[in-house]
Amino acid sequence: MSDMDLDGRLWLMKDLYGMKTVPPAQDYNAFVKAVLICAKGDGVLTPEERNWVVGRAACYYTNNEYEVAKNYAADEDLLEVLAQAPTLNQSGRRVIIYVAIQACAADGSYHPDERASVHKMAKYLGIEEDVVNQIEEYCIEEAKMREKRIALMFTEGIPY
User: Fold this and answer.
1) Are 32 and 72 in contact (CB under 8 A)?
2) Is the pLDDT of residue 61 over 80?
3) CB 30 within 8 A of CB 81
4) Which residues lie below 8 Å from residue 96, measured CB to CB, with a gap of 6+?
5) Is 78 exposed, middle or buried (0-12, 13-18, 19+ CB in 10 A)?
């Protein structure tokens, strides 16, 4: 990984989550797979959902996870995939819930079956229902703020 890649990843982690170092890479593959499985919880992984995960993978992960994001069918059992990623049970537990909700909603809809997949993952990871509900509410608020920011910055329409 180049210094520029590491610096960019660290900036993202610090800006979004307040982290001072980049987390260990050992569970990135399962992270990406689990997020895609949740996004396909309604039976369809839409192009918008996949593209959102692909873009995030391009910013955060290695070529391997980028390729997983682009090509993974998301047909494996969610809990089996999570069992391959023991550190997700530690500090990354709430982040994966947050990211999964964002991916599920990337097509403009957070389908009840996608929501059920996210809640299943949260239960497996030991995250209380109330916390998941709070993260969902935050994601809704954040999406509204994004729309407001874009409208404020580009009053004549998005130029590019």
Assistant:
1) yes
2) no
3) yes
4) 31, 34, 35, 88, 121, 125
5) buried
